[in-house]
Amino acid sequence: MKSDNIEIRWHGRGGQGAITAAKIVAKAMFASGYTGVAMVPTFGTERRGAPVFTSLKVSREKIYDLSPSKKPDIVVVLDHLLLEEEDITQGLKRDGLVIINSPLAVRSYRFNGSRVAVADVTDLSVKAGLPQGMVNSGIIGSFARAAGLLELDVLLKTIKDEFIGRRPDENARAAQLCYENTAMGGL
Amino acid sequence: MQIIETGNTAAALGVKLARAQVIAAYPITPQTPLTEKLSEFIESGEMKAEYIPVESEHSALAICIAAASAGARSFTATSSNGLLYMHEQIQWAAGARLPLVMCVANRGVGAPWNIWNDHQDSISQRDTGWIQIYANDHQQIIDSVLKAFCLAEEVMIPVMVCYDGYILSHTHMPFDVPDSETADAFLPPYQPPYALDPADPANLNTVTMPECRPDVRGDIAPGYMEIRHLLQHDLIEAIPALMRVEERFRAVFGRGGNPYIEPYRCDDADYIAVSLGSLSYQLHGVVDALRAEGVRAGVLSVHLYRPFPDKIIVEALDGCSGVIVFEKALSYGYQGPLCSDIKSALYRHAQGRPFVTNYILGLGGREITTQDLYEALKASCSPDGGAGEETRWIGLKLHTRGMQT
Q: Which residues make Cβ contacts (< 8 Å) with residue B85, sequence separation at least 6?
């Protein structure tokens, strides 16, 4: 019902870390002065590889409505093949933004009136020193670049804090590389 | 300190700050991360407590009962069928007047098997003699856990702190975690009025005759009915006791206020929606939207469900012409239990009683869209309440196999 919220829906596969990615962005947004943040996962019967999604709602005020995002401002896709399986952009606002981890060029994607941001997060994350398939730190680098809601240094610090003991520097480097290599297009 | 974490973590931090001494639990979704977190706290030495893994929920509560009888501050948590499996021990804990605290991450009950949120599990334990508190967000979860120990130990009645499975248990949101010195100032170590002692053997809660009769010392001891009357009396007295706890909490932490209900835009409301848990907060935006259209709507969140603060609720509803109760539970064969309770509370108002409409929704995690809530509440914001007295269901899809009527 409230229109001044920013709603970001994250789509990934079970085990890919979409929820961790959204949680890191929630923490970074909170640290940036958004006092209302709520990251609400929608749970099915989880198994590795199955499509999963979570809703991140961000506001300058407390979030009272924890229902899943129906009309997101931003959709983040951790695996471009999900676009062939589900209506990932359902309800996306007309002037919205879609951020995709994909090896394809940004011009390959068009979503009725929305901006599109693409980075090959899978490849860039390996270049940053992470094992193959770890994309959740990289994708939020692309998010920071495309959405323009977060300062990169706040994000990198939040990533390092979150991944303490679990390759914090490589995860931060993946985010930085994706931030620098996100192509913008669409509309 | 403000952190962003899940509702289960908020509950675990509350238990840690309360310095619970014995924790016994059996894993069940969506509660499991709460007791996992407690086992981590204990394993790392951050929390000094005995964690007793058990083979069932029945044993979990049996161990808490034993530990509390020996004078230890005890805690368990569960959901759904796990709570139902405790049912016999739940009744026992209340009858034995043990100040246990239990968190319930609310989940639908089987059959058919279901892991998602509704309130049928804890509502079905309504008449067991426990105090039940429903939290709407993570701050209320952590604060309620602390207050629950304080209240339980003051009135010697166990307390259930209920919060929505997944919607709160697995959602990340900010909340304040007090430091342990402040929590200690609010909740001093438990001083049991009585504790089992091998040096002074005793039988507790043995066969108690219908009639009063002399005990081993020759004093006339109460019969079963006197003991049960005392439980009822003390539950009613727990209502003012909770206000004393709340005032102490506010003096120490600087937050809190009304521990019974949380009204939103109810003062001049013609129509008031009533519900338990996170659904009440989802209704805030719906009420705002209706207000913008000129409909004087409000929402009343009920925090304390048992003992039922009937006078406080009736006062909050005074002057409105319609009450619309949204429930994630059902007394099968009749109507929503909260709806029945509200109607019963309003009965003494012979004149000018508001109509009471009942919506059943979200059973077994059926998604509750804010648009559906808006349409239902709007339809009921009219002098006749929309359409009659019959219980209405939101989001029901009756075109499925075998459902055509």
A: B56, B57, B58
Given a cut of 60, is residue A2 above it in pLDDT? no
Interface list for A 27-46 with B (CB within 8 A): 27, 30, 35, 37-41, 43
pTM of the predicted protein model: 0.96
* Domain that residue A175 falls in: 6-186
HSE of B175, CA atoms in CB hemisphere, 13 A? 25
Of all residues in chain B, the one with the smallest CA distance to A65 is B282
Tell me the pLDDT tens digit for each residue of A61-83: 999 999 999 999 999 999 999 99
Q: What is the ipTM of this complex?
A: 0.95
- Note whether B122 and B9 are same-domain residues: yes
- B-facing residues of A in 65-94 (CB < 8 A) are 65-68, 70
Which CATH number fits the domain that encloses residue B288?
A: 3.40.50.920
Report how far residue B174's alpha carbon sits from residue A27's, in angstroms, rounded to the nearest whole number.
9
- Domains identified in chain B, total number: 2
Q: Comparing C-alpha atoms, which of B27, B170, B121 is closest to residue B364?
A: B121
Task: Name chain B contacts of A27, Cβ cutoff 8 Å.
Answer: 4
pLDDT in tens, A115-171: 999 999 999 999 999 999 999 999 999 999 999 999 999 999 999 999 999 999 999
Q: Are B299 and B281 in contact (CB under 8 A)?
A: no
Task: Name the residue with tokens 């892991």.
Answer: B115
Contact A174, A130 (CB under 8 A): yes
Query: How many Cβ atoms sit within 10 Å of the Cβ of residue A89?
Result: 18
Supply φ then ψ for residue B81, to 5 degrees.
Answer: -60, -25
What whole-number distance in Å separates Cα of residue B233 and Cα of residue B254?
A: 31
Closest chain A residue to the Cα of B172, Cα to Cα: A39
Interface test with A, best of B114, B115, B136, B171 (most A CBs within 10 A): B171
